[in-house]
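Exercise 3.2. Students should predict the tertiary structure of the chain below and write it as structure tokens, then compare their answer with the key that follows.

Predict this chain's 3D structure.
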Amino acid sequence: MRLQLALNVADLDAAVDFYSRMFGTEPTKVKPGYANFAVADPPLKLVLFESASEAGPIDHPTINHLGVETETADEVVAAEARLTESGLATTGVDDTMCCYATKTETWLDGPDGSRWEWYVKTGDSDQLTNVSVGRGDDPTAGDRCCV
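Answer key:
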């Protein structure tokens, strides 16, 4: 597992340049308005969303959401069970296409309103905005996404 940090940035090209130099690695995926880094050291999934209306300056970007990337869908299901058993409200596990990937995921909100995603990437997609491909029973679960 590794933590995910998803940031809103005003200038995607400038942010890609900055974070490439900062972490010493190039993004693994760049699409219009989107970049995704798989940083080995420290283990981090860094995702950038170009959003002039929600972004801060390059040295103070705003958080889009936080997450935990797992290696298997079973780990997402186990996390979902543990979270709900501990009394935390989640969206339920759902299969989605979002952020140029297919994923199995669940979402929850922190007490400060921060959005957290537990997920595993299962493939690539040409879809940036969220489309639920159904697994969960909550019809609004597919409404959660990074953008």
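Discussion points: The beta strands are 2-9, 29-31, 34-39, 44-50, 62-69, 94-98, 101-109, 115-124, 131-132. The chain has two domains: 2-67, 70-143.
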